[in-house]
Amino acid sequence: MMNSQKYSDLIKSKAKKFGFQDCGISKADFLEDDARFLEEYLEKGYHGEMQYMENHFDKRLDPRQLVEGSKSVISLSYNYFPEEKIETLDNFKISKYAYGEDYHDVIKELLREMVSELKEEIGDFQCRVFTDSAPIMERSWGSRSGIGWIGKNANLITKNKGSFFFLAEIICDLELEQDAPATDHCGTCTRCIDACPTNAIVDAKIINGSQCISYATIELKNEIPESFSEKMEDWMFGCDICQDVCPWNRFSLPHQQPRFAPNGFLKTHRKKEWKELSQDLFSEIFRKSPVKRTKFSGLKRNIGFLE
Question: Which residues form the active site (predicted)?
Fold first, then answer.
């Protein structure tokens, strides 16, 4: 039988093989500090119309309620920083994470293949895989496992790779060697806070979601409030401003995932073409994209608000 350190080493080796940027491990336990934070966040209404954040409060804080008998949370990151940026001149903007195929599909496929190989070498074990797909405090687990620290823009940041990466988890019943939590390296920098055009960063690490451009263009189902007028900076889906200005992202390197490359339409379309977008073309362009979440009506609403 392998000991916990050998299991951990094997898992990290497999993570690297499957293209994950970083892999850290923490004990599956109750997130006591996050309980107070989440309660206050919801009480202040910072989640806006994201009512789902009010659901499964206990599950969000305790992974043992998601996977019975779980002992470890394996946190992973997957780079999505693009080599080729989409032209912004005379164009509406789209978040870098949505350039290519839906990350939920891409990363879950990788996680399932990785777990399958681990079970061949370790033997059977109980687990579930996640990537932004369940009530999990992903950034808290990433910080606990040493992948990075939660920055003032509430994104997980690493010193040598920045913050343009997806987070994923394998919650399992294996006894594994734990990693040390990450330390904070934001210092006195306030570039993300200063750059946010809607003042959505109300305090270090706290985002008023109802004031965030990403929320307005993706999560919000009703009309965009007039308070966003003249502040959207041509973002039609998502927003990268608080990451683009972060000094640590000068270390971001291009991803190596072909499925995250932008399709031809994103490279050639400009404002004129986006304004003339039809339902059929939307379905063709964004069939496998995260942008399909906002639906054709939502994207047209966003574009109309920007005109």
Answer: 132
Specify if 11 maps to a domain. yes
- The answer to whether residue 300 is domain-embedded is no
Condensed to tens digits (0 to 9), the pLDDT of residues 259-289 reads 999 988 999 999 999 999 999 999 999 999 9
- Is the residue at 209 inside a domain? no
The pLDDT tens digits of the residues spanning 147-172 come to 999 999 999 999 999 999 999 999 99
Q: Which residues contact 118 (CB under 8 A, 6 or more apart)?
A: 10, 11, 14, 125
Annotated binding site for cob(II)alamin: 60, 132, 153, 156, 167, 214, 239-240
Cβ neighbours, 10 Å, residue 44: 12
Distance between CA atoms of residues 80 and 265, nearest Å: 19
- Binding residues, as ranges, are 60, 132, 153, 156, 167, 186, 189, 192, 196, 212, 214, 221, 239-240, 242, 246
Number of domains in the chain: 1
Q: Single out the catalytic residue among 9, 29, 62, 132.
A: 132
In a domain, 57, yes or no: yes
Q: Catalytic annotation on 132?
A: yes
CB neighbourhood size of 120 (10 A): 9
Give the domain range for residue 10: 4-85+96-172
